Amino acid sequence: MTVGIDKIGFYTPGLALDLVELAQVRGDEPDKYTIGIGQSVQTIVPNYEDVVTMGVNAAQKILTDADREQIEMVVFATESGVDNSKSAAVFAQKLLGLSPFIRTIEMKQACYAGTYGLMQARDFVALHPGKKVLVIAADIARYGLATPGEVTQGAGAVAMVVSDDPAIAEIATDSVYMSRDVADFWRPIDSTTALVDGHLSTDVYKEMFLTLWQRYQDQTGMKLSDLAGFAFHLPYTKMGKKALDQIMDQVDADGQAFLRAQLAASQVYNRQVGNLYTGSVYLALLSLLKEGDLQTGQRLGVFSYGSGAEAELFSLKLSDGFDQVVAQQDVAGMLAHRQMVSVAEYEEIFNSQLFDSAVDSQSQAPAGTGLCQFLGWQSGERQYRIG
């Protein structure tokens, strides 16, 4: 039986900041952001958006009534959870109109948890043919104003339906993975922003990729030339290049040129959004599927990394007609229609978030959008609406 990704959808809030403008205000050279880091624009999160709203909005783009009837489980991966007890998946279940007779769970391990959720979904469907699992990876990368990590902020959600007749790609059972206790990135319980050692994180990312690639080759016999490209976790787009450069000598000049072009295709959307933690690698995958040079039956490598640290490398085999399915997602159009804000407006929005559950408050949610929105706090409870 073939199990894999049947549908994939992406959502990011409708506000964005030009990073050239941010660099100028911060007194930095724009090339430091656009070339050195590899980011051009980042999504800005208004106070009426959170991981629940983004996850629901991404899922609404792909779910049909038939999907809702067949979904047996919702796995919500995030490191930006809205409650320390109640899973974001429970909120999503109600807002998406799913059956009460399903499992709903939230998972956390930095940026890696979406991959664990995808693997759990694959295993569940393999044991329960005809059932489907909804996997949501949603996050808000928030480091603080005028901090070293500010340029890599971002937000968004990727929703995937896993089934036993996947229209996009089969998830191979060839995973290799590893974990190490590393202090490269963390967010204490009492903090709304992350702490990060950027240089260490880059070093560990590269080291884990190289280690797992060697292990993957040993266990599968696959060569770099057997892959039509990679989807990397991209906290910033330059990170994928740093990893791939380590193994480029394993293919000839034509192979190197092809893989670089595929890497560039996988970076298109992340460059315009910023870091979305658990969803980052799957936004890169969607970008590669939409913008890359791919054909049915080809195999893609996927490298998922989460600081702290955990990583996994596996492959996907493209289904017949995958391009027609992903063509239905107009990501470029969504990104192009975002409203650009000034640095001053961005700073005001950044400071307007409603983190205090002890104070009844209302967000600035506009009416009539048709989207899921966070309305604010009432008696310590989060309030949501769709419409």
UniProtKB/TrEMBL annotation:
Keywords in alphabetical order, please: Transferase
Identify the residues that bind (3S)-3-hydroxy-3-methylglutaryl-CoA.
143, 242, 275
List of catalytic residues? 79 (proton donor/acceptor), 111 (acyl-thioester intermediate), 233 (proton donor/acceptor)
Alphabetized InterPro entries for the sequence: HMG_CoA_synt_C_dom, HMG_CoA_synth_N, HMG_CoA_synthase_prok, Thiolase-like
GO terms under biological process: acetyl-CoA metabolic process
Ranges for the Hydroxymethylglutaryl-coenzyme A synthase N-terminal domain? 2-164
The molecular function GO annotations come to:
hydroxymethylglutaryl-CoA synthase activity
Gene3D superfamilies reported in the protein's UniProt record: 3.40.47.10
Q: Which residues form the Hydroxymethylglutaryl-coenzyme A synthase C-terminal domain?
A: 258-352
Q: Which family does it belong to?
A: Belongs to the thiolase-like superfamily. HMG-CoA synthase family.
Q: What name does this protein carry?
A: Hydroxymethylglutaryl-CoA synthase
Q: In which organism is this protein found?
A: Fructobacillus ficulneus
Q: What is the lineage of its organism?
A: Bacteria, Bacillati, Bacillota, Bacilli, Lactobacillales
